[in-house]
Design a protein that fits this description.
Elements (H helix, E strand, L loop, with lengths): L1 H26 L3 H6 L5 H22 L4 H26 L11 H39 L5
């Protein structure tokens, strides 16, 4: 019983730290652009998987069960972030250089604007995938270290 309570307290500490970091990110104005500028919306999917898996980890820590599906979810969010990177680069490069006229400044601005949205998508999905994977792996490693 004591071991179970200790696991739950560690899990709760991680959840509180993630909540504080999320609040600080929101207060500094970084959170909304991270989600709103992602053209693929994979950041939303990564966040949902992170939330559901965190709840599953807490439940399994309380019930003292192994966490096989949670390891898979930690790798899944990382893979989704990498897929978002590739898709973002594809968005960035798709058709941008075919219609550029270097003598027309408006054409150059349009191409740079199109490229920046694809690049932002690539970087935001990578960042969210990495952060979510680290959070999940830290939770699982601290709570259930023998299940690797």
């Amino acid at each position: 019983m004591r071991k179970r309570i200790t696991k739950m307290l560690f899990w709760w500490l991680i959840v509180c730290l993630v909540g504080i970091c999320t609040y600080l990110t929101h207060a500094s104005g970084w959170l909304f652009p991270l989600y709103n500028n992602d053209m693929t919306h994979l950041t939303y999917l990564i966040t949902v998987i992170l939330g559901l898996t965190t709840l599953s980890i807490g439940y399994k820590a309380w019930r003292n069960r192994t966490m096989h599906l949670e390891w898979f979810a930690s790798d899944l969010v990382l893979s989704l972030g990498m897929i978002g990177t590739i898709v973002g680069f594809m968005i960035m490069l798709y058709g941008t250089f075919g219609e550029i006229d270097v003598t027309d400044m408006e054409s150059v601005r349009n191409v740079l604007s199109a490229m920046s949205s694809g690049l932002y998508t690539a970087l935001s999905t990578t960042l969210m995938g990495l952060i979510a994977s680290v959070i999940l792996k830290c939770q699982i490693s601290i709570i259930d270290p023998e299940d690797r």
